[in-house]
Amino acid sequence: MKSRFLFPYWCRYLGWGLVVLHVPISIVGHGQGMVNVLDRESTGLFTGEHLFFICTSLLMVSGLFLVAFAKEKMEDEQIWHIRLDSLRWAIYINYLILIISLVFIEDVGHMLELNLYVPLLFFILRFRWVIFHLNRSLSREG
Length: 142
What we know:
The chain is mostly helical. The chain has 2 domains: 1-72; 76-142. It is globular, with a radius of gyration of 18 Å. The chain is built from 5 helices and no strands. The longest helix is centred in the C-terminal third of the chain and has 33 residues, at 109-141.
């Protein structure tokens, strides 16, 4: 992955901020009945629940996207290979979960949300895990 296609390093912090902001908004919105109040005011495709889902999903996805595709302090070829391998594994896991959920889950509404978050979450987790182990093994040698 060429570094010119990646976001600057500081975007990682902006992304984590958006992800963290998503959590209380989702909890407060569903807990306070905010969605039900919005539903009374709108009809058709853009109901309150749908608009709330769009807004919270955009916060979460844009935050995860910024975290996943922000540059590292030191971008080299090894980081590039780790990114590529993590992205490949994220796609494998995403399609495995998608196939399993298509077969065993009747509620297809949650599959969209699952399909939005799983590839980015798994990519971030695997990428950070490999970087952590690489740094740990280097610190043991030095």
